[in-house]
Amino acid sequence: MDELPGPYCARLAVQKAAAVGQQNPEHLVLGADTVVALGDRIMGKPKDKNESAEMLGALSGQWHEVWTGVCLFQRMQEIQMVKAIRSNVRFKDLSQDEIDNYIKTGEPMDKAGSYAIQGIGANLVCEVNGSYHNVIGLPTTDLGSMFDKLGVQFDLKIDENIV
């Protein structure tokens, strides 16, 4: 793949938002896509346990980038706001047993780079530079800034009936 991680995930976010937005032209649609990049290698979701083990082994002890592309799209007003956000993450050195045991949990199978920092995968990470929420898959601070630029406001009233 010749595409860099930032433009790649931004393009996928646009494609997702536009696909939904074309069918719902009056709605503001959010599309997002997250990838992990180790050097120039883009890692999406693993196809199987072997690919998961290979990804985790490659990330072991390494700094890597987590990129999330976000797109706000509305067809009627011709809105398409796109941003790619990068965070840097360092894994601890992983033993083969740690990799195998993590894969047995099933958690890595639908995660970019084969890990979920918000789950058991937090045990694999020793350092994060940048947005933690970006590593989870939705950079909330950046997204809030995008909404602000569009003049979108949220009513943050707490419903006392929800515990």
Task: Characterise the protein shown here.
By secondary structure, the chain is of the alpha+beta class. The chain has a single domain (5-150), classed as Maf protein. It has helices spanning 5-23, 49-59, 96-104, 132-136, 140-150; strands at residues 29-38, 41-43, 63-74, 79-91, 125-129. Strand 1 (29-38) and strand 2 form a beta hairpin. Helix 2 (49-59) crosses helix 3 (96-104). The longest helix is centred in the first third of the chain and has 19 residues, at 5-23. The chain is globular, with a radius of gyration of 17 Å. The model has no long low-confidence stretch (mean pLDDT 94).
How is the topology of this model organized?
Elements: H1 5-23, E1 29-38, E2 41-43, H2 49-59, E3 63-74, E4 79-91, H3 96-104, E5 125-129, H4 132-136, H5 140-150
Antiparallel strand pairs: 1-2, 1-3, 3-4, 4-5
